[in-house]
Specification:
By secondary structure, the chain is an alpha/beta fold. The strands form two sheets. It has a six-stranded mixed beta sheet with strand order 6-7-8-3-9-10, with helices on both faces. Helix 3 packs across helix 4 and helix 6 crosses helix 7.
């Protein structure tokens, strides 16, 4: 736990009578690029919201950078990008960054730094409403990078993007990790797994695997991440599926 950017132990989340995260425990090493993968509805967004401290009805341990999730001290240390755009459409990229940097007291130099790191310098004075999907994703990421957070939590940042734009964003994530930033990136696209240092595979609110990409393939004997995920589902104890189905029906 000492070198963990994220530490959870028996993390549970309830919505009404239904438990949607079932006693999740894992660690994310500092400076790593970790993929949170699983199909839509598996609980990825709920887990990320618990990590950044905005999810209700959370029990168990959730520590982020050595502090309880949601602590005031983490506001400048954690960047969070939701699935929806985190920028104002009626402002330019630079105006958005100037606004958010003033809230963080980050300074003008920091605006230029994040524009350069996200390859948006040439589009800085462009209205957000006119951006392409890839540019919009990078603009939201640029806001999250203000203040040089130690941890970035990114909820499906590549959803809806073409393969070239996805590749560009993952290259950026790798550069950030190499600079010392910890990234937790969710996706339901299994082929993105190979770009991560470590993988958390989530299904029905449970962690099916916490492995390196190579370790996952070796453990399952599969040729790729898609096949590995299916292999893990096939070997999941049947009583767990029955328990989940019973909760879903309640």
């Amino acid at each position: 736990m000492v070198n963990s950017a994220i530490h959870t132990d028996d993390l549970r989340v309830r919505r009404g009578k239904r438990e949607v995260l079932h006693g999740i425990s894992f660690d994310v090493p500092q400076g790593s690029l970790v993929g949170l993968l699983g199909p839509s509805g598996s609980g990825k967004t709920t887990l990320m919201r618990a990590i950044v401290g905005v999810q209700r009805n959370v029990t168990g341990v959730v520590n982020v950078l050595g502090h309880a999730a949601g602590s005031a001290i983490l506001r400048r240390q954690v960047g969070y990008v939701t699935q929806d755009a985190s920028v104002y459409g009626d402002l330019t990229i630079r105006q958005n960054l100037n606004y958010f940097s003033s809230m963080l007291r980050a300074g003008r130099a920091d605006v230029e730094r994040v524009l350069e790191s996200t390859d948006l310098t040439e589009q800085a004075n462009q209205m957000v409403d006119s951006l392409s999907g890839g540019q919009l994703s990078r603009a939201s990421l640029a806001v999250a990078l203000l203040g040089s957070p130690e941890l970035l939590v990114l909820d499906e940042p590549t959803v809806g993007l073409d393969p070239v734009l996805r590749m560009d964003l993952w290259a950026l994530f790798r550069r950030l990790a190499e600079s010392g930033t910890t990234l937790l990136v969710s996706s339901h696209v299994m082929d993105e797994a190979t770009r991560c240092d470590r993988l958390l595979l989530l299904r029905d609110g449970e962690i099916l695997a916490d492995e390196t990409p190579a370790g996952l393939l070796e453990r399952t004997g599969a040729a790729d991440a898609d096949a590995a995920f299916l292999a893990l589902i096939r070997h999941r104890p049947k009583h767990l599926d029955a328990e989940f189905d019973g909760e879903a029906a309640s």
